Amino acid sequence: MSEQAVLEVRGLTRRFGLRTAVRDVAFELWPGEVLGIVGESGSGKTTLLNCIGGRLPADHGSVMYRTAAGYSVDMLALPEAERRKLLRTEWGFVHQNPRDGLRLDVSAGGNVGERLMALGHRHYGRLRQAAVDWLEHVEIETARVDDPPRAFSGGMQQRLQIARNLVTHPRVVLMDEPTGGLDVSVQARLLDLLRRLVREIGVSAVIVTHDLGVARLLADRLLVMKGGEVVEGGLTDRLLDDPHHPYTQLLVSSALSV
Amino acid sequence: MNHTSALAGEEGYNFAFLDEQTKRMIRRAILKAVAIPGHQIPFGSREMPLSYGWGTGGIQLTAAVIGRDDTLKVIDQGADDTTNAVSIRGFFRRMTGVRTTERTDEATVVQTRHRIPETPLSEGQIIVYQVPIPEPLRWLEPRESETRKMHGLAEYGAMHVKLYEDIVRYGRIETAYDYPVLVNGRYLMRPSPIPKFDNPKMDRMPALQLFGAGREKRIYAVPPYTEVKSLDFEDHPFEVERWEQSCALCGSNDSFLDEIVTDDQGGHAFVCSDTDYCTRRRAAGHEGEGMPEGYLQPSEAAEVLHHPPSALRAPSPSGGRDSDLPPEGEGGAQRRKGDASSGTAFRAGLRP
Predict the structure, then answer these.
(1) Residues with Cβ within 8 Å of residue B121, at least 6 apart in sequence
(2) pLDDT tens-digit profile of A8-23?
(3) ipTM of this model?
(4) Cα distance between residue B271 and residue B250, in whole Å
(5) Among B28, B158, B177, B212, whose CB has the most other CB atoms within 10 angstroms?
């Protein structure tokens, strides 16, 4: 491939005291690719995601990001002002619990518009129109643009959170268990939506999940984590149909199939 | 500078109550604040003989900047004779012996709560604001560490979310007081709970503006001729309050008006909130439509309050309903006592 990776993670390590939560993780994320990170709880998936997203300082390693302008920066070494600017323009972070990623007292429109306002958009009419458009994209009734998210169902809140992140057309979106805590039918709808949006916008995404079904549907490529290390990686279908590492075999064989 | 001994207004106290070390500490904070317009500077706020929320921040600033040649004016909601203004003015008269005034143009230091005087301030004057909550981002972000970071990185987009919400709910920006401003194109600032009517007066004001929050231990400032811009949207521009009425006493239609309830029959009238401005306009011959019939006129009120309690019944301030008056000896004595300390009876009668 002649294209360059949009994200290059090298030697990422994070310790909590004597415990090593993430050890020497390295991977690349290509433009338009969805990378799944699977593993049991406690395997360091979320810590890894938080380190990449700058929510937790990493002890070692680098996260090289190729910006929209075409130059390469180390997200972990960047001055905070620039890092935060990139994070709210070219990156997105979808939390497992939508309450962490939304302002529950602020209307859905205000939630979607916040990133735009942070970028200097100062036209109420256009901000509101952008919010309406995005609610349509994520299949929320546009009439509810002025309702606060606290009045939304869990699935709607999650979709709103996605809209709030995608409104600035980010290039990298990190998602932490985006379907966790939702019932299966809502999950299916959200997965369809995510698949559609990722293809439409051409965003690259890292999705952390413990659900192999979600990983199979969404991810092009998978990394399997155990005890803070990546034990196996590869194309999703290859990895799930022909797991090599004993832990991956265990993981695949433990998944329920209906 | 040595203000010890006999120079102080009250024996046993230093000039302007605070000791010189404390004043120096506050002045250092003021210098920093002036150097970085709109930036909140922490300072070692002292216990003052006044409850938090009554102007402990403003009173410390005034004490730190006031000198023997100064003339002090204190207003509360624009009026010179409301409780807060009277007691703070009395405090400084006792503690410094400086001249006090009600005239805006005569004052060198103006301490204010909730208003900027209508008479434009000029070079050489200092206006001291009493601030309850200095942090403009508090509504959006409860963490102090995070708001400091937001100020440091000038991440103020979220502030517009608040205004956006106003338009969503009310169709226009409903924030009517403490309206957020951007100072010198850099720091977001809370202008203290002044009505947004006063916001344009802050922009490029020739006087030095100091803000003190005693409980929150913060000082900030806007130096003379500094740009102060009220936040808004392109399609919902910032605008100030307008009234269809004009002042019932002086007829002004460009000053901030208070609505006064005049009886229990739904009667009401609008009068200037700035008493000094209103008084001087009337002295210059301007006249409004007058207060509703049966309502205490300023001259009558003064008369009532200067007479012994028994005489209170004669002019009948509440439109002939004598029985509404408090019993003699209690209310009467209180009224005269209030008069003695405030010196201006009119407002006391106007706002029971």
Answers:
(1) B104, B110, B127, B205, B206, B207
(2) 999 999 999 989 999 9
(3) 0.84
(4) 8
(5) B212
Domain with CATH 3.40.50.11310 in chain B: 20-230
State chain A's mean pLDDT as an integer: 90
Q: Which of A81-95, A103-117, B273-287, B289-303 has the lowest mean pLDDT?
A: B289-303
B175-197 pLDDT, tens digit each: 999 999 999 999 999 999 999 99
- Residues A229-246 have a mean pLDDT of 93
Choose from B160, B172, B174, B235 for mutation: most chain A CBs within 10 A. Answer: B160
pLDDT number for residue A210: 85
* Burial of residue A200 (number of CB atoms within 10 Å: 0-12, 13-18, 19+): exposed
**B160 Cβ contact partners less than 8 Å away, ≥ 6 residues apart:** A117, A122, B231, B233
What pLDDT is attached to residue B170?
92
- Which DSSP category does B36 fall into? S
Instruction: Quote the Cα angle for A107-A109-A112, to 5°.
Output: 115
Say which amino acid occupies B159. Answer: M
Pinpoint the alpha helices (H) of chain B. 20-35, 56-65, 83-96, 144-152, 157-170, 199-202, 275-283, 298-306, 331-342, 345-350
B229's tokens: 């811009």
Closest partner residue to A117 (CB to CB) among B160, B167, B235 is B160
**B263: contact with A, CB 8 A cutoff:** no
**Does pLDDT of A76 surpass 80?**
yes
Whether residue A117 and residue B165 make contact (CB cut-off 8 A), yes or no, is: no
Q: Is B250 an active-site residue?
A: yes
Q: Which CATH number fits domain B20-230: 3.40.50.920, 3.40.50.11310, 3.30.300.30, 3.40.80.10?
A: 3.40.50.11310
How far apart, in Å, do the first and last CA atoms of chain B sit?
Answer: 45
Q: Phi and psi of B129, rounded to 5°?
A: -100, 140
Q: Which of residues 121-160 of A touch B (CB under 8 A)?
A: 122-125, 127, 146
Q: Is A115 on the interface with B (CB under 8 A)?
A: yes
Whole-model pTM: value is 0.80
Lookup: tokens for B7: 């120079």
Residue in the structure block whose two tokens are 């966790």: A180
Q: For chain B, which residues score pLDDT lower than 50?
A: 1-8, 308-352
DSSP labels for B240-265?
----SS--TTT--SSS-EEEEE-SSS
- Looking at residue B139, what is its pLDDT? 80
SS3 B321: coil
pLDDT score at A26: 94
> Each residue of A217-235: pLDDT tens digit?
889 999 999 999 999 999 9
Q: With contacts defined as CB-CB under 8 Å, which chain B residues touch A80?
A: 149, 153
Do the Cβ atoms of B153 and A115 come within 8 Å? no
Say how far apart CA B118 and CA B101 lie, in whole Å. Answer: 16
Let me know: does B147 contact A107? Beta carbons within 8 Å: no
**Residue in B with minimal Cα distance to A111:** B161
